[in-house]
């Protein structure tokens, strides 16, 4: 399933970690994940900073995005129950850019699923591994160290869309589910930040090797209960880095915030 990031030979698990026939060895961290990056940079310096990773974990643990988590879990259950019988092998699932494992662990807990998740940030993967219910590894989505066609289901939530790699790792009859923000996602946040709030574009990835076969909307209204929660969700948005300090101050003065959450789940299959 997993490949050596150096020579792309299969990795074989052992008591210390994993190794390939070419003699490359990768030790398993105390939390149970593997580090499969070729970069000389420390994993702690890549991906989200430690403080943001923990802030995101704490925010998601409060259940604000539970409707999306539950929708993804239901899709997994449907895929498992719809498999051709009889089959003794579990359904393989890969969660790309899994973050701190909030969605990965929930999907991996479904009976009959063999789940894997990876992220570029070592702190994200360390936190994910603590959740369990999946095999976690640090890797780059530009060159995912897994075998061709290895996964019956691939999920990608809010990450860049790398069609070449996604199509490569997806099994011939598998499904890829990608999640993008819906038009009104966090509109209440924008109403505070901007004099003229705007709707999201709902742009789905344009594909050549994969074909869009369906979409599903998941929406709800939530109330963020603390300033920490407001700041955490703001940091998870792309406009956190391009909002003026004066506009950020508007959020800093709030203790609670009501807003819509709105997601589009799109399913792709091989053309």
Description of the structure:
By secondary structure, the chain is α/β, with parallel strands linked by helices. The protein has one domain (12-270): Rossmann fold. The protein has eight helices and eleven strands. It has helices spanning 50-61, 66-81, 102-108, 122-131, 163-169, 187-193, 227-235, 245-252; strands at 12-13, 17-19, 25-27, 34-35, 91-96, 113-119, 135-138, 151-157, 170-181, 210-224, 257-270. The chain has an eight-stranded mixed β-sheet with strand order 4-7-6-5-8-9-11-10, with helices on both faces. Helix 3 links the parallel strand 5 (91-96) and strand 6. It is globular and about 60 Å long. The two termini are 24 Å apart. 38% of the residues are buried. The mean pLDDT is 92.
Which key phrases capture this entry?
271 residues; alpha/beta; Rossmann fold; eight-stranded mixed sheet; three-stranded antiparallel sheet; 28% helix; globular
Molecular shape? globular
- The CATH C-level name is Alpha Beta
Low-confidence stretches: none
Annotated CATH architecture: 3-Layer(aba) Sandwich
Question: Roughly what is the average pLDDT, rounded to an integer?
Answer: 92
Q: So, the CATH homologous superfamily?
A: Vaccinia Virus protein VP39
Distance between the termini: 24 Å
User: In terms of structural class, how would the helical and strand content be classed?
Assistant: alpha/beta
What fold name goes in the CATH topology slot? Rossmann fold
E-strand count: 11
Strand coverage percent: 25-35%
Number of individual domains: 1
What helical percentage do the residues reach? 25-40%
